[in-house]
Amino acid sequence: MPTETRTTCPYCGVGCGVIAKVEDDGRVSVKGDPDHPANFGRLCSKGSALAETLDMEGRVLAPMVSGRPASWNNALDLVAERFSSAIRDHGPDSVAFYLSGQLLTEDYYVANKLMKGFIGSANIDTNSRLCMASSVAGHKRAFGSDTVPGTYEDLELADLVVLVGSNMAWCHPVLYQRLAAAKANRPQMKVVVIDPRRTATCDLADLHLAVRGNADVALFNGLLHHLAQEGHVDEAYVAQHTTGFADALMACQHASLAELAEATGISTLQLRLFFQWFAKTRKVVTCYSQGVNQSSVGTDKVNAIINCHLATGRIGKPGSGPFSLTGQPNAMGGREVGGLSNMLAAHMDIANDADRDRVQRFWASPAIALKPGLKAVELFEAVKAGKIKALWIMSTNPVVSMPNADVVKAAIETCPFVVVSDMYGSTDTARLAHVLLPSAGWGEKSGTVTNSERRISRQRPFLAAPAEAQADWWQMAQVGCRMGFGAGFAYQNASEIFQEHAALSAFENDGNRDFDIGAHAALERQEYDALEPFQWPQRAGSKPDETRFFANGRFYHPDGRARFVPVQAILDHRPSTEFPLILNTGRIRDQWHTMTRTGKSARLSSHMAEPFAEISPSDARQFDLEDADLVELTGTTGARCIVRALITDRQAPGSVFAPMHWNDSNSARARVDALVSNERDPISGQPALKNAAITMKKVEAS
Ligand code: SF4
């Protein structure tokens, strides 16, 4: 009898429900889950091709130590012994974990508990630092908490949807489908796309503002100034629910529309139109994604956007609000359990004494981390400097995806002890492991993920994990036990971890923290298995319809008020003579991250078959390039990469777009992120992956 399993797509932050069907002969097919509130049955090209990526080629089937198969016992003993000896000889900050938004919340929870609560270091960061850390920092500055107030339905209810730095059509395709369907039914709805590139998302736009890279702060400061000048500020809301408006307005440095046009690259006509639409539309949702976050001024960009929503009181209401879209399937779930090195579990702060005390008592922890740990770029800098003696990388491929990727690779090569947990043994990172641990993958493991609208959904297994592959949480719990922390890590299944996570979220939480799923703290295993998607918070005894954040105008700062954050518009990355172009790295429609899974599907790979760079016609002329030439891109890091030139007027002069997916395994010298320097946002630590200075030259046929 064929069996059907309801689960969740493992790719982007939309978090679509999937029904996987396994036939009697083992063949798997997938379709969208019509009852899942994220997608109502829709799937994009990547989700539809999930069944094509489930073959066993490249899977790690047994633990490997120094390239040779080993038993789990021996491998885990070795990991525990090497981490323990590094801690004994060099202190707890000499070890580090680097995690992934691909991990399930239960994996993330155990990793954070082990590192922050038992090892006593906060050197645990994640590739989600590359994805949404600036939004987290912006939320905390404005709201006093990392709270995403928006829901997908808000996009459908809004009369104006502003998409900033978000190629939603390719990067959140099902949400884009929902938006397109809503727009088709609601003639009054307008969509504004703010992006230096004319992306596929612009097909839906009533107005495309081709903003210069990093000029978003100038644009939204200009909007705030306009709102104040033209009498569109909600004075009562600002007075009752916020502080800091005057300072934020002062920071807008009044510029004429012509000066603003010069700074942003947007015509005065378009600026005026956008400002008027925003000012006069009551229901406005502003969505933002990597074009905002992946910047040296990412946090300021987030706050410049939020400032405009606070000024108009357009937050906490249906069809209104700022809305950060997460890139990865579980970037949000990682945040809930303290997946970033400056956070503790359940949206508590390492830097807060009361929070540390609360978590330590709950965990009965012997050595809670006392200070924030290293953020992703700093973490690999510490590896390079020889300060990290033992490193555990899980479910991610930093040798390809980190900025300055060549240096990251060299750093990992010099680290005395590297553990990699992954499904595949041939990734650029897995090849550097001293110990390679076989992880269960999508369709094999059990747990939860949280999507961009705070909706927690189950990932359920429908296939047996191959050979000796095991869940990531199990691997860490086993190492925790072997390091002498047994009582805290005696989990039998993912359900027990979820229960503990839910109980911690409610522990001594009388409404002073946003994240609370206490309603699920006593979930039985069968209830966990049957758990329907739900949005947090869901406090003990609360109903799902009580979940709209900020509807009562109260925020999580001690005085209950939101903060306007004064942000200065600084235009950085002025091109130099040596590196006259700005590289904007990004994603394409049919690939996911470093292609370890999507690269298996011939159908997906046929969309764009080789690495390329989009170059404007004027830059092509200047650099003597023709369409389909091979072009060598060189970054300030000294790294080079060779890709195919794609000449297109979608690309603004002075900038080059190149996808980050290709890697050494499938295309030599195409690791684009190697060109990007370690420059990062000083507040969030998020690297500026969309603003790297480069130059380029044609590769002459030899
Ligand atoms: Fe998966 Fe995202 Fe596509 Fe949905 S939109 S099917 S979550 S990749």
UniProtKB/TrEMBL annotation:
Q: Which domain of life is it from?
A: Bacteria
Query: Mind listing the UniProt keywords for this protein, alphabetically?
Result: 4Fe-4S, Iron, Iron-sulfur, Metal-binding, Molybdenum, Nitrate assimilation, Oxidoreductase
Report domain 4Fe-4S Mo/W bis-MGD-type positions.
2-58
Cofactor (UniProt): Mo-bis(molybdopterin guanine dinucleotide); [4Fe-4S] cluster
What family is this protein classified in? Answer: Belongs to the prokaryotic molybdopterin-containing oxidoreductase family. NasA/NapA/NarB subfamily.
Q: Please state what the protein is called.
A: Molybdopterin-dependent oxidoreductase
**Species whose genome carries this gene:** Rhizobium lemnae
